[in-house]
Design a protein that fits this description.
The complex is a heterodimer of chains A (469) and B (874).
Chain A lengths: L17 H9 L11 E2 H4 L13 E6 L14 H5 L16 E4 L8 E2 L4 E2 L5 H4 L5 E7 L6 H10 L9 H9 L9 E4 L23 E3 L20 H22 L3 H23 L7 H7 L3 H14 L4 E5 L14 H22 L6 E6 L3 E7 L10 E4 L3 E6 L7 E3 L1 E2 L6 E3 L4 H11 L9 E3 L2 E3 L15
Helix pairs in contact in A: 7-8, 10-11
Chain B lengths: L1 H12 L5 H16 L1 H4 L12 H6 L16 H7 L17 H12 L21 H4 L24 H12 L10 H13 L5 H9 L5 H11 L1 H14 L19 H12 L4 H10 L6 H4 L4 H4 L8 H10 L18 H12 L1 E7 L3 H37 L2 H13 L4 H7 L4 H12 L19 H26 L5 H6 L7 H11 L25 H19 L7 E7 L6 E4 L7 E5 L21 H8 L7 H14 L20 H13 L4 H9 L12 H6 L16 H12 L34 H5 L15 E2 L1 H9 L1 H17 L3 H13 L5 H13 L4 H9 L2 H4 L2
Antiparallel strand pairs in B: 1-2, 3-4
Helix pairs in contact in B: 2-6, 9-11, 12-13, 14-27, 19-26, 20-22, 20-23, 23-25, 28-29, 28-30, 32-35, 34-35, 35-38, 36-37
Classes of the chains: A alpha/beta (469), B mainly alpha (874).
C-alpha cells in the first residue's frame, strides 16, 4: 500500500469512525500514524485473515542456546556406529573447531502409533508423538547465536525488524482487548533480550510484553497493573470523573477519533487490571493441574501460555531460561538435565490444550535458534570434549496443533546429521507456513516503512504444504 | 507421447543450427529480457539463471530444467503458464510469445546448451546511470521558485503560506480559521521547547495586541536553552543515540556517550549551521577548530556495534537514499550501483573507533600507566598464588591415601576429626575438605564410589588415580600450549584443534585440583585460593607474597579517576578500498572499488577520495549547497516536526519507492531559503512557525475532508499526542518539580528522584526503559525517522497506576494548596496551570462534587486532570 494514494477513510465521513479505521487497517495501514494517533482499540481488534484460518494462536516454546538435533528429534544410527571416528566427508565449518563424530548418548525409542523416533530425554513429549510434526531439515545463515536468534524471531539476521508476534498482532489483532496480544515469558532475559520481541518499525502497540516469570505474584508481572493507593471502587469514581471531563472536552473540540479512542482505551485499562491479574495468576489453577506441569519458571511459563491462549492472546512465547541454557559446547549430557525441566511441562501443555480443544487452533512451536554439530567440539573454549558446537547447516524444529500433521517427520539431514539435504527448510519457510495456518498470506502481510513494503519473510519464504494435515 | 511428438517436430524442422548460435540468438535475448533482472545478481526464489548448471540446480521449487523429462521442466511450465502457481514472467508482465516459448522448448529438449562465459566474472556489467534516472525529482538542483499567485491576498503571512494557499485554491479549498491565541502559544511552546508555556506567558501573549506578538514569543522560545533539548532529541532519533552498546549478554554502557548528546543539544542552541553540523558528525576531527566539532563523531562512534550500519545510516539520515539496498546488487529502483555501496563502505572500514581525551596528554598518560601498573601487579600476584596453589595440591595429592583413611575413621567410626588429623599428622582443614567432599551423596564422576571400604576401593588406588589425573592433565595442557603457540586469543582458541581429558577424568580434576567452583566448594578441594593459602606460606615465600599484595594495594589507590573523553572515529593509518561482495557474499569478492562519493550525486565520473579515509571529502559532498538532497531532506524533517507530516512523507527515502512531495515548489523554496540563510535551523523554524499555515486551528471542514481526508494540502492543523519526553516533562512542570539542570551523565528514568528532563534519562539499546518503550520511543538499534504514536490500554495503566503519575498528582495538589485558599479557587488555579483557561461551570461543579465526596481526594482529582485528553494532546 502506498500511502501517497492511501485512502484510509472513506471521504464521505466527516470523521472516521471505528469501523472505517478497522477496514483501513484490514488493508494494512502503512503510514497511518503520521497524522493520527493510532487508536489502540482498533489497532488491536481482531481482523479477518486473508483466507480461512486453521489456527488462531501461537505458542512458541523457545529452547534457547541451540538444542542438538541428533540428541533430540533426529536419530542417527550411523553417528553411533562411527562414534570416535572422523566424518568421512569432513566437518562443515561452524563457529568453532570440531573433531571426531560423537554418538548420541541417548536412545531413540519409537513413539506413538506413528513410531516417530524421539530421544528418551523427551519421553513425555514422545507420548504426544502422534501430534508432532518434526522438521528435520532446518537450516539458517550463521553459526552464531545473535543472527540466528534474530532470524528465528524476526525473519532477519540483523536487529531492527519486527518479531513474528508483532507481525501477527499487526495482521490479525488480538481477541482479548484486556490483555496484551503478544506475551513473552522468560525469567531474566535470553541472549540479546527485548530486541527479540521488538515491534521495530511497526507501531509500539504490537511489541511483546515481557513477563519475568521467575515471579509468581501476578502484580509483579505487568508494569503499573495495580494501584497501590486506591481500590477499584475509588478508581471507578476517578475514572467516571475523567470520562465526564473528557466527554465535555470532546464535545467542545468536535469529534476526533484520537480523543475518542483514548477515552475507550482508558476503560479497557481499567478492566485489564482485573482480567490480567486473573490471567497471570497460576495459583488459581487446581493443584492437580499445576502438578502435571511441574515447578520452575519454564513449567509456569507453559501453564501461563495455556491460560493466556485460552483468553484469546494471539501469541505467547516461553523461553526456556535466562541466557542460553541449551548451548552445551562442553557436555551434551547437560541436555538431559535441561530436558528434565522442560519435557514434563511441554507434554502437560500439549495434553492440556488437547483436553480443552485448544490444540487444533493453536500452533505450538518447539525449537531453538539452530542445532549442534554431530562432531565433538575440540576447541580451546571447552573444558572437556563431550559437547557439540553450533550448527546452522542442519537442525530440527517441532510443530504441533494448528492444522499441522501429527506423527510426521519432514526432510532429512545427511547420515550423520550435519547438514539438511532432503527438502531443506529455512526459517522463512516456517514463518510463511505458520502465517498460512493463521490465515495470512506472508506475501501480502506487508508494512510500508521508509518507502518499502516489509514482510516477516523478507524477500523469501515458501508455504510448505506437506506439513499441513 | 508428447515427448515423442516434440522430438519429431524438431527433427522435422530439419535444420541444423549451431546450438551455441541458437542459444545466443534465440534464447539468451529472451531470457535476458524477461528473467535476468530477477535471477542473476539476485536469485529470486533461489533460482539463478547464469548457466546450464544453475538451471539444473534450480531454485526453491526444484530444478528449472529436467534433462530426463525436458517437456516437464519447471521453466517450460512457467513460461507456458501451465504451472498452477508459477507463471513467468509474473503477471502483469506479458507472457512470452508462442515463438519464444517454442524456441526455449527446443533449446531445452536439445540439451540446454549454454556456453561458458567469456573472460573473468565481475560484479556485473558496467553500470550507466541513464538520463531518465537522473531526471528523478530529488536529483534536480534546488532552485528557488517564484511565489505563486493567490486569490486571497490577506491570508498569507509569510511566503510559505502562498504556496500552501495556491495549492488549496487550485483544488477549490480554503484553509480553516486560525487557532486561538491560547491554542497557538501552547502549540508553539511544545513544538519549540517540549515544555508547556507558563500561565503568565500565555497571559502576556493574550494581552499583546501588537503585530509582533507572535514573533516575540517565537524569538523568546528560540533563545531558550530548552530549544536544543527538544530539537536535539529529534536528531538523536535519527542518530540512533543510546547510552550503551547492544551487548547480547550483559549491560555495557558507553560511559561518555552523553557528551555527544550534549554536543547535539548545544549545536541546536547555538544554531550551528546545519552543513557544519553534518560535517562535524562525519569528519569533526578533520575540520579547523576541531575541538568544537570532534564530539559530533559520536554519531558513528556510538553505533550499535552489532552490524556495520554506517553506510545505511549515512544514506538515509543525510540523503534519504537507501544506499544499503545496493549491498548485494545494484539498487533495483534508484541509480545506486552496488559499487557505490562499497565505495562508501571503504571510507568507514578505513576508520577505527577511538576516544578523544578531554584532558591534557600527561593526565591521560598517567591514567593509562597507572591502570597498566595495577594490571601487571594483579597478574604477578595471581601467577604467584596459582603456582603455589598448584604445587601444594600436588603435594597434598601425594598423601591422598592417608587423608582417605582418616576420612573413613571420621565418617565410618565417628572419630573426632581434629584428633584424627593430629594423630595422623594431617592438615585438619584439608581433612575437613576431604570429609565434606567424600560425604557428598553423589559426584559427577565415579572414581571415588565405594571409597568407604578399603576392600571396595583401596586408599592407595585413590591416591594413584589422583596422581595419574594430575599428570595427564599437565600433559594435555602442555600439548595444547604447543598447538596454540602460546596464544590465548579467543579466536585462536575457537579454531584450534586441541586435546582434553575425558569427561569423567576432567570432572575429577576439577573437583580436586582446579580453581573452579563445584558443588558447594569454591575451588578444587586441594586447591587453596587467595585468602586460604596464606597459612601454607612462610619465610621468603610469605614475605614475597605480602610484598606483592602491598604493592597491588598501593597501586590501586594511586589510580586517578578516569579522564573524560569523547567517543570518536578516526582514520586508520592505512586506508583501504573495499572489494565488491558479489551478491553480498564475503566469500565471493569482486573488483576493488576506490573510495569515492555516490555516482548519481556527481556530475561526471566520481573521482576517488584523496585524503585519508576520505571522510572529509564525503562530508563535503554531503553538506554542500550543490547537493540536491541534503537541504531538502533536512527541511522536510523540520516540516514534519512542526506540522506532524513531511511534505515528503517518507522522510528518509526520497528515491523511487519513497513518496513524492505534496508541494514540490514549496519544498524547494524552503530548502533554497534554508541555504540562503546560512543553513540556520532557527531561522527556518522561525519562518515556519510564524506562518498562517502553522497557525491553523484543528477545525474540520466537510468539503476539505472529502477531497483531502489526509490533510496533505494542509487545510487544517493536526492534533498530536505529546511524545514521551514532552509528556513526562509536562507532568513535572505542572507539579512544579521539574529540574531544569542541563546536560551531564544520564540517570535512569526509573530512579524516583530523577526529576530532570526526559532527554537526560538513560537510553538503552539492550533494555529500553519501560516508560519510553510504552510511549513509542524509537528502537535505538536502528535509525528512526519518525515515531508512530499509539494509544494503548497499557499506556493508560500508566496514568491510572504508575508511581510516577501518583507522585506528580500528589505534588501538584500540594502546589495548588499553597497557591490558592479554597477548593473552587484551587480548581481554577489548576485549570489555569494546565489549560490556561477558566473551568466551565460544569467542570467546576464536577470537580467540587468529587472533592466533596472525599475530603482527601485532592491528589486523586489532580491525577484526573493530569490524565485528561486536554492535557495529553496538543
Amino acid at each position: 500500500m502506498n500511502s501517497s494514494s492511501t485512502k484510509l477513510f472513506p471521504s464521505s465521513m466527516a470523521r472516521p469512525s471505528r469501523r472505517d479505521v478497522l477496514s483501513a487497517i484490514g488493508s494494512g495501514f502503512g503510514m497511518m500514524g503520521l497524522s493520527q494517533t493510532l487508536p489502540a482499540a482498533t489497532a488491536t481488534t481482531p481482523r479477518a485473515p486473508h483466507f480461512a484460518a486453521k489456527a488462531k494462536h501461537v505458542i512458541y516454546l523457545f529452547l534457547n542456546g541451540g538444542p542438538s538435533q541428533v540428541d533430540t528429534f533426529d536419530p542417527k544410527p550411523m553417528l553411533t556406529k562411527y562414534h570416535g571416528k572422523p566424518a568421512p566427508s569432513g566437518n562443515l565449518r561452524t563457529e568453532r573447531k570440531t573433531g571426531a563424530l560423537l554418538g548420541s548418548p541417548f536412545q531413540f525409542p519409537r513413539c506413538g502409533k506413528s513410531g516417530l523416533e524421539i530421544s528418551e530425554i523427551f519421553s513425555e513429549l514422545g507420548r504426544h508423538a502422534d501430534d508432532l510434526c518434526v522438521i528435520r531439515s532446518m537450516h539458517t545463515e550463521r553459526p552464531n547465536h545473535e543472527p540466528s536468534l534474530f532470524m528465528l524471531n524476526c525473519g532477519h539476521v540483523l536487529p531492527g525488524h519486527p518479531s513474528m508476534g508483532s507481525w501477527l498482532n499487526y495482521g490479525l489483532g488480538t481477541e482479548n482487548q484486556n490483555l496484551p496480544g503478544f506475551v513473552v515469558l522468560c525469567p531474566g532475559l535470553p541472549v540479546i533480550g527485548p530486541q527479540l520481541w521488538s515491534s521495530a518499525f511497526l507501531p509500539a502497540v504490537y511489541q511483546g510484553t515481557h513477563i519475568p516469570n521467575q515471579e509468581t505474584d501476578p502484580e509483579k508481572l505487568i508494569q503499573h497493573l495495580r494501584n497501590k493507593q486506591h481500590n477499584l471502587e475509588e478508581q471507578r469514581k476517578q475514572l467516571d470523573l475523567l470520562r465526564q471531563l473528557n466527554r465535555m472536552h470532546l464535545k467542545r473540540e468536535g469529534n476526533d477519533s484520537q480523543l475518542e479512542s483514548r477515552i475507550e482505551s482508558m476503560e479497557i485499562a481499567y478492566r485489564m487490571q482485573t482480567e490480567a491479574l486473573d490471567a497471570f495468576d497460576i495459583r488459581k489453577e487446581p493443584e492437580a493441574v499445576r502438578a502435571r506441569y511441574g515447578d520452575g519458571p519454564f513449567a509456569r511459563g507453559c501453564l501461563l501460555a495455556r491460560r493466556l491462549v485460552e483468553r484469546g492472546v494471539r501469541m505467547v512465547q516461553v523461553y526456556y531460561g535466562d541466557g542460553q541454557p541449551w548451548d552445551n559446547h562442553d557436555d551434551i549430557l547437560i541436555h538431559k538435565r535441561l530436558a528434565q525441566n522442560s519435557d514434563k511441562p511441554m507434554g502437560a501443555l500439549l495434553q492440556d490444550l488437547k483436553d480443552r480443544g485448544l490444540l487444533q487452533e493453536t500452533v505450538v512451536i518447539i525449537g531453538g535458534e539452530f542445532g549442534r554439530t554431530p562432531s565433538v567440539e575440540v576447541s580451546g573454549l571447552v573444558k572437556y570434549q563431550n559437547g557439540r558446537d553450533h550448527n546452522n547447516h542442519g537442525f530440527s524444529m517441532v510443530l504441533a496443533g494448528g492444522g499441522f500433521k501429527g506423527g510426521f517427520a519432514y526432510g532429512a539431514t545427511d547420515e550423520f546429521g550435519f547438514k539438511a539435504v532432503d527438502k531443506p527448510v529455512h526459517p522463512h519457510d516456517v514463518h510463511a507456513t505458520i502465517l498460512n495456518q493463521l490465515g495470512m498470506d506472508h506475501l501480502r502481510m506487508t508494512y510500508r516503512y521508509s518507502g518499502r513494503d516489509f514482510r516477516l519473510t523478507d524477500v523469501a519464504g515458501n508455504v510448505i504444504k506437506d506439513l499441513i494435515a | 507421447m508428447r515427448f515423442l511428438v516434440l522430438l519429431i517436430s524438431v527433427t522435422c524442422a530439419g535444420q541444423r543450427v549451431d546450438p551455441v548460435e541458437f542459444f545466443e540468438t534465440k534464447v539468451r535475448p529472451v531470457l535476458a529480457k524477461n528473467f535476468f533482472s530477477c535471477h542473476t545478481q539476485t536469485k529470486l526464489g533461489g533460482l539463478e539463471m547464469t548457466s546450464r548448471e544453475s538451471l539444473l540446480k534450480g531454485g526453491k521449487s526444484g530444478p528449472a530444467i529436467s534433462p530426463d523429462r525436458p517437456e516437464e521442466s519447471l521453466l517450460l511450465q512457467a513460461i507456458k503458464r501451465t504451472h498452477e502457481r508459477m507463471k513467468m514472467p509474473p503477471p502483469p508482465n506479458a507472457a512470452l510469445t508462442a515463438d519464444e516459448i517454442k524456441d526455449i522448448e527446443r533449446w531445452i529438449t536439445r540439451g540446454a546448451v549454454w556456453p561458458p562465459p567469456v573472460g573473468a566474472k565481475t560484479a556485473g556489467p558496467g553500470y550507466k546511470i541513464t538520463p531518465q534516472q537522473r531526471a528523478w525529482w530529488a536529483f534536480q538542483p534546488v532552485r528557488k521558485p517564484a511565489l505563486p499567485a493567490v486569490k486571497d491576498k490577506t491570508w498569507a503571512r509569510v511566503p510559505v503560506d502562498q504556496f500552501v494557499l495556491a495549492a488549496l485554491e487550485s483544488k477549490g479549498l480554503k484553509p480553516v480559521a486560525q487557532a486561538s491565541k491560547r491554542e497557538w502559544i501552547r502549540r508553539v511552546t511544545y513544538d519549540l521547547t517540549g515544555l508547556p508555556p507558563a500561565p503568565q506567558d500565555v497571559d502576556a501573549f493574550a494581552a499583546d495586541a501588537s503585530a509582533s506578538a507572535r514573533a516575540k514569543v517565537v524569538d523568546r522560545l528560540l533563545a531558550s536553552p530548552h530549544f536544543g533539548e527538544r530539537w536535539g532529541r529529534y536528531w538523536l532519533d535519527v542518530a540512533r543515540y543510546s547510552d550503551d552498546k547492544l551487548n547480547s549478554t550483559q549491560d555495557e554502557p558507553y560511559d561518555n556517550a552523553y557528551r555527544y548528546r550534549d554536543w547535539v543539544i548545544q549545536a541546536m542552541n547555538n544554531d550551528m549551521p546545519f552543513d557544519t553540523f553534518v560535517k562535524a558528525q562525519l569528519a569533526g576531527d578533520l575540520l579547523p577548530d576541531k575541538e568544537k566539532y570532534v564530539a559530533g563523531l559520536g554519531f558513528f562512534a556510538l553505533s550499535p556495534q552489532f552490524q556495520d550500519d554506517r553506510v545505511e545510516v549515512t544514506g538515509k539520515a543525510f540523503l534519504a537514499l537507501t544506499v544499503a539496498c545496493a549491498t548485494c546488487h545494484d539498487h533495483k529502483f534508484d541509480p545506486i550501483p552496488t559499487k557505490d555501496y562499497y565505495a562508501l563502505l571503504g571510507v568507514f572500514t578505513s576508520t577505527d573507533q577511538g576516544e578523544f581525551p578531554l584532558a591534557p596528554q600527561n593526565v591521560v598518560d598517567e591514567y593509562r600507566a597507572r591502570t597498566k601498573a595495577v594490571d601487571e601487579s594483579k597478574e604477578k600476584l595471581n601467577k604467584f598464588l596459582d603456582t603455589q596453589a598448584k604445587q601444594l595440591s600436588e603435594v597434598l595429592a601425594e598423601r591422598a591415601a592417608d587423608y582417605v583413611r582418616a576420612a573413613r575413621k571420621v565418617v565410618n567410626e565417628s572419630a573426632d576429626r581434629k584428633i584424627t588429623a593430629a594423630q595422623m599428622k594431617l592438615d585438619d582443614p584439608t581433612l575437613e575438605r576431604w570429609v565434606d567432599y567424600l560425604k557428598l551423596p553423589a559426584r559427577e564422576h565415579k572414581f571415588l564410589d565405594g571409597w568407604q571400604e578399603e576392600a571396595k576401593l583401596p586408599a592407595e588406588q585413590i591416591q594413584k588415580t589422583l596422581v595419574n589425573v594430575i599428570n595427564e592433565w599437565k600433559d594435555v595442557e602442555e600439548k595444547n600450549f604447543i598447538r596454540l603457540g602460546g596464544s590465548m586469543a579467543r579466536n585462536d582458541l575457537a579454531r584450534a584443534d586441541l586435546l582434553s581429558l575425558p569427561r569423567d577424568k576432567w570432572l575429577l580434576w576439577r573437583d580436586v585440583f582446579s580453581n573452579q567452583r563445584h558443588a558447594r566448594f569454591t575451588s578444587g578441594i586441594l586447591y587453596y585460593k587467595d585468602g586460604v593459602i596464606d597459612r601454607f606460606l612462610s619465610g621468603e615465600w610469605k614475605a614475597h607474597f605480602e610484598g606483592l599484595r602491598a604493592e597491588l594495594d598501593r597501586r590501586k589507590k594511586a589510580v586517578p579517576d578516569r579522564y573524560p573523553y569523547y567517543h570518536v572515529i578516526r582514520d586508520r593509518a592505512k586506508p583501504r578500498n573495499e572489494r565488491v561482495r558479489i551478491r553480498g557474499s564475503n566469500e565471493n569478492l569482486g573488483e576493488e572499488v576506490p573510495r569515492r562519493f555516490l555516482s548519481v550525486l556527481c556530475d561526471d565520473e566520481p573521482q576517488p577520495f584523496q585524503k585519508g579515509s576520505g571522510r572529509l571529502e564525503l562530508a563535503e559532498g554531503i553538506a554542500s549547497a550543490r547537493n540536491p538532497l541534503t537541504s531538502r531532506v533536512f527541511v522536510n524533517r523540520v516540516w514534519h516536526y512542526l506540522f506532524g507530516a513531511g511534505l515528503v512523507r517518507s522522510l528518509s527515502n526520497f528515491g523511487q519507492l519513497g513518496e513524492k512531495p505534496s508541494h514540490p515548489e514549496l519544498l524547494d523554496f524552503v530548502a533554497a531559503r534554508f541555504i540562503e540563510e546560512g543553513w540556520s535551523l532557527k531561522k527556518l523554524v522561525r519562518e515556519l512557525t510564524l506562518s498562517s499555515t502553522y497557525g491553523l486551528s484543528y477545525q474540520t471542514d466537510a468539503k476539505a475532508l472529502v477531497s483531502d481526508p489526509d490533510n496533505r494540502l494542509l487545510w487544517h492543523a493536526t492534533r498530536r499526542r505529546m511524545d514521551v519526553e514532552a509528556l513526562r516533562d509536562a507532568l513535572l512542570a505542572a507539579s512544579g518539580e521539574l529540574d531544569t539542570k542541563a546536560g551531564g551523565a544520564p540517570e535512569p528514568l526509573t530512579m524516583e528522584k530523577n526529576l530532570r528532563r526526559t532527554v537526560y534519562g538513560f537510553v538503552s539499546r539492550r533494555k529500553l526503559d519501560g516508560t519510553l518503550a510504552l510511549f513509542d520511543f524509537p528502537n535505538p538499534n536502528s535509525m528512526s525517522e519518525q515515531r508512530i504514536p499509539t494509544a494503548t490500554p497499557l499506556q493508560q495503566l500508566y496514568f491510572l497506576n504508575s508511581k510516577f503519575l501518583m507522585d506528580r498528582a500528589e505534588a501538584f495538589s500540594k502546589r495548588l494548596e499553597k497557591e490558592a485558599e479554597t477548593d473552587p479557587a484551587r480548581i481554577k488555579q489548576a485549570y489555569r496551570i494546565l489549560f490556561y483557561r477558566e473551568p466551565e461551570r460544569a467542570e467546576l461543579d464536577a470537580g467540587l462534587a468529587y472533592l466533596k465526596s472525599n475530603p482527601k481526594a485532592w491528589p486523586e482529582y489532580a491525577q484526573v486532570l493530569l490524565s485528561s485528553n486536554e492535557f495529553v494532546f496538543y
